[in-house]
Amino acid sequence: MKICFATNNSKKLKEVRAVLGKEFEIVSLEEIGCKEELPETGDKLEDNAFQKARYVKTHYGVDCFADDTGLEVDALDGAPGVYSGRYAGEPRSDDRNVDLLLKNMAEKKDRKAAFRTVIALIIGDEEWAFNGKAEGELIGARSGEGGFGYDPIFKPLGYDKTFAELSLEEKNTISHRGKAVRLLATFLKEKSS
Ligand code: IMP
C-alpha cells in the first residue's frame, strides 16, 4: 500500500517507516513534489493535522496522513502545546525552543509533561483520526544526541533516560507518535485485507 506522510521531517519519516514496516510504501511531501509549507493555523492538534492532510489531498490528489504533535507542560498550564513548533517564534528552531522551555521551567518544581500526537488520515473522501500520548517529566539540561525537538529534555515515565538517549526502536515503543502510528497501522491493515 502506498500512502503519503505529509511531512518533510526526515526524523519523523524514519520513526514512522520503522513502525509501519515494509507492507507500506510511505512517500514524503518532497516525493510528491510538494515544496510549500503546509497550513497549520488551528488551535488544536487535531485541527492542524487535518489542515495539513486536507491540503495535500486537495492539491496533490493522493491518499495521505499528517501528524501534529505538542508538548504539554503541567506547570505552564499546558504550554507550549499546539504552539510547540513555534514556541520561541519564527523561524522555527528546536534549539531555541528547548532553550526557552528550560528557561521558563528553571524555577518550577512540578516537572510533569506529556507529548500528544494526533494523526489525521484521508483515504478517498473518508477521514479518521488516531491519538497517542507519552507521559514523563522535563529535566533541567539537555541529555542525549538522538531523536529531535524536545527529546533531549524529556524523560518518559519509568525511564531514567531521555527520549534522546533511547534507540529509535525504544522511543517508538513508548512514544506518542509510536502509539498513534500503531493504531494507524492496525486500521490500514484491516482496511486493505
Ligand atoms: P509538529 O508536529 O511537527 O508540528 O511538531 C511540533 C513541535 O514539537 C516541533 O518543535 C517538533 O520539533 C516537536 N516535536 C514533534 N514530535 C516530537 C518528538 O517526538 N519528540 C520531541 N519533539 C517533538
TrEMBL record:
Residue positions of the active site: 68 (proton acceptor)
PANTHER family: INOSINE TRIPHOSPHATE PYROPHOSPHATASE (PTHR11067:SF9), INOSINE TRIPHOSPHATE PYROPHOSPHATASE/HAM1 PROTEIN (PTHR11067)
TM stretches of this protein: none
EC number(s) recorded for this UniProt protein: 3.6.1.66
Molecular function as annotated in GO: dITP diphosphatase activity; ITP diphosphatase activity; metal ion binding; nucleotide binding; ribonucleoside triphosphate phosphatase activity; XTP diphosphatase activity
Superkingdom of origin: Bacteria
Organism field: Cyclobacterium qasimii
Family affiliation: Belongs to the HAM1 NTPase family.
Chain residues that bind Mg(2+): 68
Cofactors, names only: Mg(2+)
Quaternary structure note: Homodimer.
Protein name: dITP/XTP pyrophosphatase
Matching NCBIfam families: PRK14823.1 (NF011398), RdgB/HAM1 family non-canonical purine NTP pyrophosphatase (TIGR00042)
Stored Gene3D superfamilies: 3.90.950.10
Keywords, in A-Z order: Hydrolase, Magnesium, Metal-binding, Nucleotide metabolism, Nucleotide-binding
Cellular component aspect of the GO annotation: cytosol
Cited HAMAP family: Non_canon_purine_NTPase (MF_01405)
Described function: Pyrophosphatase that catalyzes the hydrolysis of nucleoside triphosphates to their monophosphate derivatives, with a high preference for the non-canonical purine nucleotides XTP (xanthosine triphosphate), dITP (deoxyinosine triphosphate) and ITP. Seems to function as a house-cleaning enzyme that removes non-canonical purine nucleotides from the nucleotide pool, thus preventing their incorporation into DNA/RNA and avoiding chromosomal lesions.
Reactions catalysed according to its record: dITP + H2O = dIMP + diphosphate + H(+); XTP + H2O = XMP + diphosphate + H(+); ITP + H2O = IMP + diphosphate + H(+)
Note on how the cofactor is bound: Binds 1 Mg(2+) ion per subunit.
CDD domains given in the database record: HAM1
Keyword Nuclease: no
GO BP of this protein: nucleotide metabolic process; purine nucleoside triphosphate catabolic process
InterPro entries: dITP/XTP_pyrophosphatase, ITPase-like_fam, RdgB/HAM1
Sequence positions that bind substrate: 7-12, 69, 148-151, 171, 176-177
